Amino acid sequence: MSAHLIRGGRLVDPSQGLDEELDLLLEDGVVARLGAGLEPPPGAAVTDARGLVVTPGLIDVHVHLREPGHEYKETVESGLMAAAAGGFTAVACMPNTEPVNDNRSVTEHVLRQAARHPYARVHPIGAISKGQKGEELAEFGEMVAAGVVAVSDDGWPVKNAHLMRRALEYARHFDLTVIQHAEDLELTGDGVMHEGEWSTRLGLPGIPGAAEDVMVARDLLLAELTGGRYHVAHLSTGHSLELVREARRRGVRVSCEVTPHHLLLSDRAVAEQSFSSHTKMKPPLRSQHDVEALLAGLADGTVDAIASDHAPHHPDEKDVQFSAAPFGIVGLETTVSLCLDRLVHGGVIPLPRLIELLSTGPARVLGLPGGSLAPGQVADVTLLDLERRITVDPTTFRSKGRNTPFAGWTLRGAPAATFLAGRPVTLP
Amino acid sequence: MSEPTWRRKDLLGIAPLSAEEITLVLDTAESFLEIAERPIKKVPTLRGKSVLNLFFEASTRTRSSFELAEKRLSADSLNFSSGSSALVKGESLIDTARNLQAMAPDLLVVRHQHPGVPHLLAERVEAGVINAGDGAHEHPTQALLDALTIRRHKGRIAGLKVAIVGDVAHSRVVRSNVHLLAKLGASVTVAGPRTMMPVAADSLGVTVCYDLEEALEGADVVMMLRAQLERHRRALFPSVRDYFRLFGLSRARLARAQEDVIVMHPGPMNRGVEIASEVADGPGSVILEQVANGVAVRMAVLYLLAAAQGGGE
Q: pTM for this one?
């Protein structure tokens, strides 16, 4: 029997509506008790959490671990170290590896690698279509049996409406959420940034907000038709958010995530950072109007989760002219500090709502263990230091990716520690 | 009042410049214009300076104009163009920049099909960088030579009504001109097909118009842009015939402008597409003067950047 008492912290657990000073006893991998003035059982380890916030382990439902196939960008090992360093106890990883995670053997490979590097849990997301080609459905049943928690063709939107319909229907057999990278690639064309004032000024081909909106609108109708569970990945526009809000009122089973960069940066950053490829990602940084709509969506409850869309690339790939660079930035090691500083200290949302967005919400959206510190739940815990000041320094990242537009930002608030199945996570 | 001086290492665009800096370039160019009239069109100003012309995208007139400007200033110039091996072997831009830096050039003149490339090079090399056109972003020396041409004809820029017509979305010439003309006090109308107008054109501080005749009304200056209907632009406009019907500049249409209107075109022209020959070769056309002024403007820019490297006073 193993036991660990986390004592004296401010315990914030939105799943139970808790925000007070409480001790937390973890035993045999699960939460045993919550209470004031708990005494450690004989042999229990004790962590002094005075001055810290104790929350259910944070979960990032949208990361790219790049393994198998692109180990030069990231591996399961480096990605999970980055997750732990960033305060996360679980990540859901996208299937756009090489080979694509569209079958049991790739899923099992990812989980085997994860078991060798137990810094955080890995929940693989399987492909919707074989090879992410958008033609035939992948074997959901086989993948679920191997451990897949959701399906997505992330990076390659499901263009064919018939296939999307069948995916939503078939996924219901497994109560799987279908995650869509919502983007009409015809509307995107050769676009590399948001179409608006700044693309106009910079002469860069634009990606209109409508490229996202038309696909979200279509998918919501298909979700309504099929009764399937639909999740919008990295939602980036005010219009799409309004579509989600309106569909939810009609009873459509829809959820959505937004990324820290879409909440904190607008398309202006491309000009301010002088065409830096660290401001290039999909969806692109949107207008200030969209940023404000997303912030409102955090506050009013429309947004279910904050996810990083952690997309590591090799410096050789990113250190090129804007138009030639791949889309994507890393996020696992910046998300928590960015959110604490800009959203909580910045007065956008209270701390419990942030924990809902980073833990309880993500667990609910994909039906994952965790997201709660109620007795009997998995003993995955994150400790946060709301006052520690950090400066984002990509050279210190555990991730192999250094591609972030936030380098040099000074932020107040940082992850302090994580516990996985009741044991403190230590990084080599 | 102190004499204005040039302090920038690079000329990456018009957007960052002040009205004073723009006027300084134009005034300097005026003084270089005279050199073209001499029997020996060469001065020793940049003797011992080396200039690399880096044209990642094909260009005849801009490259020749820079090259001539460099030779007239006695600089040693070297050309790399898109056909030449160094720029096509898949070497990364950063490596290209490092290699060029190793040759210790004083100035780089850069043309590239992607916006921001001169900016990236400027960050990585010690040499001064002149943007000779980056995608649809900026083409500062074109706007400067246009301004010089306007000023020589009208005596001023402030208060003029300028119409710029054509494929605004894909034009670097428009962006540089809009910034420059606004900074010097002209009022600018951009006109073109809706499919070739950037969504936020009005954010550039111009009047946006979708009707050629309306745009020409009372104009002092008309700039026609090259219509590039080939390849992917086909989705933006169905045919040359339709283009000329809506946006082709004919003499009859030009009658709506001021009597002393001047007609400009950055070249190369598509006769019978965006401009009728009767206009291109007509009385108000200053298209060839633009070319001549281009050499003087580029001499001015090369001179000012090289002088700034001397440490100033």
A: 0.94
